[in-house]
């Protein structure tokens, strides 16, 4: 990795962590309300869940940032045609990223974590999204409880609580994006697809099968959450194998396999 793009991605990583812990810091502007509300057991539970979700989100973010997405080494002894960009042996679902290199079961390059999402860390990335979504929801709940504890008839209500109101507005906007992204990647996990395959379906031959790696919700999710323990993976499900004719099997032994692409 290197260059301007990586520096920009690194800045996004710092900005994300500042947003997570910045929400806690901004709540200190309502310290009097917090002290009052912490006398209520239900709010104590809510606030503990909120703090826990923030630290869990930050911890998972760190893990994804420093994880290996499944980068294929140039000298790795695997079957497949070599990548024209880095000479790494390619797999059925590998793709070459200009920042990270060839990544097994490539999903996308995420600037928020300055890393690719692939076979080695996609499950961890989804856990990070789930934790982040929980944090966003709890942030809005805490903000609303604090605002609800204030007399709304105050003539200068907005001026007094402008910081909290601005924070809640930003949280809601980010929340719509994050919850949508979380739902999308949950769908990908349950169907055995990747972002790259969904976006490039028209150019990937095996995607004419619809969902070639779907083996039922249960087995597909199990494989999704355990695949990073054994990457790079060379498995191909029966549905995918069954769609390849005997003639194509012979041809693929002679010429470059069109299903192995890193471009």
Automatic annotation (TrEMBL):
Gene Ontology BP terms: protein targeting to membrane
UniProt domain Palmitoyltransferase DHHC: residue ranges: 81-200
EC number: 2.3.1.225
Record localization: Endomembrane system
Keywords: Acyltransferase, Lipoprotein, Membrane, Palmitate, Transferase, Transmembrane, Transmembrane helix
EC category: transferase
Keyword Nucleotidyltransferase tagged: no
Residue ranges of the TM segments: 12-36, 42-62, 125-142, 162-184
One of the record's GO molecular function terms: protein-cysteine S-palmitoyltransferase activity
Pfam families membership: DHHC
Catalytic activity: L-cysteinyl-[protein] + hexadecanoyl-CoA = S-hexadecanoyl-L-cysteinyl-[protein] + CoA
Domain free text: The DHHC domain is required for palmitoyltransferase activity.
Family: Belongs to the DHHC palmitoyltransferase family.
Name of the protein this chain belongs to: Palmitoyltransferase
Natural source organism: Carpediemonas membranifera
